[in-house]
Amino acid sequence: MRLVPWDPDIQTVMTRIESAALDLQPNFQRGEVWPKSKKQRLIDSVLREWHVPPIHVIENPDTRKQEVLDGQQRLVAIRDFVRGEFAVDGSIEPLDTNIQSLDGKKYRSLPDEVQRQFDQFTLRLYRIVDFKPSEPAELFYRLNQPSNLTGAEQRNAFYGPVRDQIRELVHSLETRGIGKDEFGFSNARMAYDDVICRVALTVKRGTIATKIIGNDLVELYRSEEALSNRDYQHLEECLGMFAEACMTDPKPKFNKATLYSWLIFAVRGVSLGVFNQNSSKTIGQFLRYFFYRGLELILEDKQSETYPMHILLPIHDDRATSRVADVSSIILRDFVIWCAFLEFSNATEFVNEQLHEIEKKVKKILSNNVIDPDVLGRHILSSGWGELR
Hints:
Layout: E1 2-6, H1 10-18, E2 22-23, H2 36-47, E3 55-59, E4 66-70, H3 72-82, H4 97-100, H5 112-119, E5 125-129, H6 135-143, H7 151-155, H8 161-175, H9 180-183, H10 191-205, H11 214-222, H12 229-245, H13 256-271, H14 280-291, H15 293-300, H16 309-321, H17 327-348, H18 353-366, H19 373-382
Parallel strand pairs: 2-4, 3-5
Antiparallel strand pairs: 1-5, 3-4
Helix pairs in contact: 2-3, 8-10, 8-12, 10-13, 12-13, 12-14, 13-17, 16-17, 17-18, 17-19
């Protein structure tokens, strides 16, 4: 099998499609599945003269007719646009004034010079010739094996100041030797980048009471505006302090959801003046207290009415393994960690004036004697607990 490169322009490709010399729907192809929004993004890329991935076609050596092996959806999008089935979307990020001026215009309504530019845009095609019967199918399989990128891997493609800042923060962990032993999981597939990105967005918003969805993180990376110096330095300080606290034995074990919550705990503590850059020893002691012997003692003493950890800890553990991304789970995990820290501060005689304000809020919430997690979560949210400052 040979793959012969060919670079026809769109006008040439359209001529072959309309004359049936290029078949977009051979029997091995799936149906036309791209929604309009995805087709518009492809047209947007062409109008910007950006790269369009190569297309593979099988060529009959006798008739010279071609069947699309890979790239069907791209060619369908181009065909449908030229046929006037949808218009340009000028609101696609990153905004471009030239594209914005074309918003709502179909192919036939484009200015002459833009239409010519579109028609003359070249596509890279590979003509598959001299093949054995089994070879195109094997190539099709290999080209279409799933390459499911994580959200962090996808966001890493956005070149911009926020991406660079997150990478610097992750690099600071690597230079400290922080990894799987300290966090319980490695940075495989940019897991640390994902957690720190979520913490960064939370710091920017100033609250954990607003749900973070994937598109929120994409917009943060896509923005040309870096995190403020204040927020970045705050993150750097908190991350360094917490990383140092984790270099303890026995080591706590986190997943992405619980690491996020503990970093937010450090962020809130520094913001409110409970911790400073020299508090890593205190936090390290609390980590051991929370994950090991300290909380075993609390669980043995079920008579405590102020901080009923025998009720709260199972809520934390449940919300650490299920529904981890919803606001209710994040709020509940955060609240339980602070209840445990208040218990720890009493046991260790840790004194801090700012901690009294947190204690008053916690006691007021717990005074409702609510044990149902969902109802407790609503009480915590209504109290304004989600605000970090």
